[in-house]
Design a protein that fits this description.
The chain is built from 7 helices and no strands. The protein is mostly helical and 192 residues long. It has one domain. The longest helix has 31 residues.
Length: 192
């Protein structure tokens, strides 16, 4: 069942990555004719890192042999929420002259609103893997999720540009530390 399900999740995550990478490529092409915004670019990197990390983490579901419809739909909706979150960072097509500072703040509430949904949906997805004995919850997971939720809620509430600069950096640091330390811990456990 996982192979069949994994294809669906891979397609949805792949579409999210395609949209983000295509947007970044277009920014490079139009760099002289478009108003770039470093916070927007860093959020794009953050979402790419999150999608790749999630895609990696979805592999643990391979150990589940008996899939229920509610759980199938929950994971599918989670992937769809991630796609929508990624999609908000770039218009489907954009001409030269787009001001990505204005674009980011025009979509800020939707972006951080869906980001809140994504972070909250990650909690039952991660905990359920432990309940089903597919993998333990990483020791840093609670701190990481709390930090990401704090960044998300502040981003949802404020429209101060300096704060948003700090938020995208904080998210990236939290995500990279978590990915590095949880991966390092798994590697060390194999050799213990």
């Amino acid at each position: 069942m996982f192979d069949y399900f994994g294809v669906l999740i891979s397609i949805i995550c792949g579409l999210a990555l395609t949209h983000l990478l295509r947007g970044l490529g277009r920014l490079i092409q139009l760099r002289h004719e478009t108003r770039l915004y470093w916070v927007h670019i860093l959020w794009t990197v953050n979402v790419v890192v999150f999608v790749l990390g999630l895609w990696w983490g979805m592999y643990w579901w391979k150990g589940l042999e008996d899939w229920s419809s509610p759980w199938f739909f929950f994971i599918a909706v989670y992937a769809i929420a991630i796609f929508m979150w990624a999609y908000l960072l770039f218009p489907a097509e954009f001409p030269a002259g787009v001001d990505f500072n204005a674009y980011f703040f025009a979509n800020r509430r939707w972006f951080f609103g869906i980001q809140t949904v994504v972070v909250l949906m990650d909690i039952p997805e991660t905990v359920q893997k432990a309940v089903m004995h597919l993998r333990p919850v990483p020791s840093l997971y609670g701190y990481t999720t709390a930090g990401l939720l704090l960044v998300t809620i502040v981003g949802l509430i404020t429209d101060k540009r300096r704060v948003h600069g700090g938020l995208c950096i904080a998210w990236l640091l939290i995500a990279l530390i978590y990915l590095f330390l949880s991966s390092t811990a798994r590697i060390a456990a194999r050799f213990a």
